[in-house]
Amino acid sequence: AQRVTQPEKLLSVFKGAPVELKCNYSYSGSPELFWYVQYSRQRLQLLLRHISRESIKGFTADLNKGETSFHLKKPFAQEEDSAMYYCALSAGGTSYGKLTFGQGTILTVHP
Amino acid sequence: EAGVTQFPSHSVIEKGQTVTLRCDPISGHDNLYWYRRVMGKEIKFLLHFVKESKQDESGMPNNRFLAERTGGTYSTLKVQPAELEDSGVYFCASSQVFRNSYNEQFFGPGTRLTVL
User: Which of the residues A55, A99, B88, B94 could staple to B29 if both were Cys, CB 3.0 to 4.6 A apart?
Assistant: First the structure.
């Protein structure tokens, strides 16, 4: 069975400071990892996925298979980054498509 | 494009009553998913439809929950009878049919269910 862990429920930083949201996973196969974000009064939306290796809104995330981690990073946080962030995993085989979410991290960026 | 829509946005019912949640996926999306977030817990998968067929219902908590997707369009999730622990936010998501790769799931705004 797969599991996703986000150790921090709350994370506060000041504008311009670096931010890192941690995500660890457990899965015996080759998963696909994602970061979803939910801004205030908006719906959950995909931020980025490990397979595309792109930077979205200044955020990047690298899949580290050795440490089974997929931490989300941004060098200079902005106030508009304040939101709930979820790390999620999609397994292959018959479970394809089903997402397993972490508990979520509320990021607050102070001015 | 309205995106995934869910109805109602909020439902308050008493324990033992029945509630039906509805989800309208994005037009053309054959995959439809139901998830639930219970207070203080993570978002958990309930089930997955491909068109009108249940692909995976491993996350359905018990037989008080019944999901349908007649005609492969909108889906309903019925809880009968509702219990206190069913309170939470129910999300629906849809995606296009995947071909050996993951297709982005688009989420609805959720239905907040409160069972008193």
Answer: B94
Q: Give burial (CB, 10 Å; 0-12/13-18/19+) of A2.
A: middle
Low-confidence winner among B44-53, B77-86, B90-99 (lowest mean pLDDT) = B90-99
Q: Which helix (H) or strand (E) holds A5?
A: strand A3-5
- Tell me the helix, strand and coil percentages in chain B, rounded to 5: 5, 50, 45
B73 reaches A (C-beta below 8 A): no
**What are the chain A neighbours of B6 within 8 Å (beta carbons)?**
none
Count of other CB atoms within 10 angstroms of residue A4: 24
Amino acid at A13: V
Q: Could you tell me which residue, B103 or A9, shows the higher pLDDT?
A: A9
Interchain CB distance below 8 Å, B109 and A43: yes
Residue range B1-21, pLDDT digits in tens: 679 999 999 999 999 999 999
